[in-house]
Amino acid sequence: MTGLHSVEKIGGTSMAATATLFDNVLIAGRSGADLYNRIFVVSAYGGMTDLLLENKKTGAPGVYGRFVADDDADGWRDAMDDVRRAMHARNAAMFARSESRAEADAFVDQRIAAIAACLDDLARLRSHGRFCVKEQLMTVRELLAGVGEAHSAHSTSLLLRDRDVNARFIDLTLWKQDDLASLDARINTAFSAIDLTTTLPIVTGYAGCEGGMVRRYARGYTEMTFSRLAVLTGAREAIIHKEFHLSSADPKLVGVDKARKIGRTNYDVADQLANLGMEAIHPGAGRGLRQTDIPLRVRNSFDREDGGTLVTGDYVSDVPRVEIVTGIRQMQALMFFEQDMVGVKGYDTAILDALTRHRLWIVSKSSNANTITHYLSASADAVKKVIADLQKSYPDAAISAQPVAMVAAIGSDISRPGLVPDALRALGDAGIAMIAMQHQIRNVDVQFIVECRDFDEAVRVLHRALVEDEDHAAEDRRAA
């Protein structure tokens, strides 16, 4: 490994725009040696993992959800047929060469048949009351997750070879092997004999390894594979190709003409975005890149000429400013009030233990003498279970939850004097009541807690006050 190469991840929506992907990313006018010294980690085609597991937004069950529910003996089989048809349809839309399409379809049929046979075996065991297959369900989830990335990586390799590119399909999914090596060991083995100067590896975003990628990283597993590949191969740069620029706010909320590309920021900001659920990069993936000083670039797959946004560890904006306004449209504020809490230790630990047991994501927290509040990215039902759990240990405590929204102003340095008063004035002028606010000493973010119904307008007014108005003021200063 020379360290002259890049490691690049392609998201599912970008994968689905195959023609654009080849024109703007995979080929993008390159020829000869310029095609190489790149490694691509690919996600499943957009919507495919939803069919295999469950819909990420609506929760509608896919093959996994239907198998777990077991509400219809043929339900999961029907769902598996839906996956097969969707993959064949994707192949039909991509391949001009009939031989390559036939090879791609045969690959899909082989993988789906093998996994369907495993599920059949488990279903037969489950039909006998004395067998419990609950412990095997996570393995089923892992196997299904890998099918989507195997399909996209294999098809992409074939499409590249049809264009005379020496692409190699790198299958990390462990679909036929039973050894559970670490992710690092699996990557090192796969790349030990690859010459990056003459080979273009197309790598599955899912990797079968000890601990399970889905179990450990949920749907963020592709980014972990991407990050470890960059670290272990000593990449000069890590690049994520998405269907949009990393912008100062959601263009759909503030207007395409108002949102601007961030351009430069640091890993501290990337961590804040990940904490709020924005799909910039998984926090675990960012950690590895940051610790090894590998810069991360986020590019728009549909904007071939633009360099995107560069994320580094040491960047700080020349002038204190807000780089992005974003947040969570609906979350739960869990409030724990206990009059006897003053000066007594242990309450915070007990709450954190309960949240950990129920696997709830903590976005932020605050406390005073007798109240601890956790802002959680979780459903109301999940939080009710935590409250019931805590109430058993603390029967005299007043424990409640309410739905709220969080809007955050984030930047590598937001220490501009008057920023918070300007934000509060903008919210007040718009008739938006602030429920709570947090401003950290590191001057990376300010979090405003508002009613859920005010989320969209809060993003718009804060973006106008903290980004757009500041841009106009900077232009006036330059003009003067």
From TrEMBL:
SUPFAM superfamilies on file: ACT-like, Carbamate kinase-like
Keyword Metal-binding tagged: no
One cellular component term from this protein's GO annotations in UniProt: cytosol
Domain Aspartate/glutamate/uridylate kinase: from-to ranges: 7-300
Lineage top rank: taxon: Bacteria
GO biological process: homoserine biosynthetic process; lysine biosynthetic process via diaminopimelate
Record field: catalytic activity: L-aspartate + ATP = 4-phospho-L-aspartate + ADP
Family of the protein in this entry: Belongs to the aspartokinase family.
Name of the protein in its database record: aspartate kinase
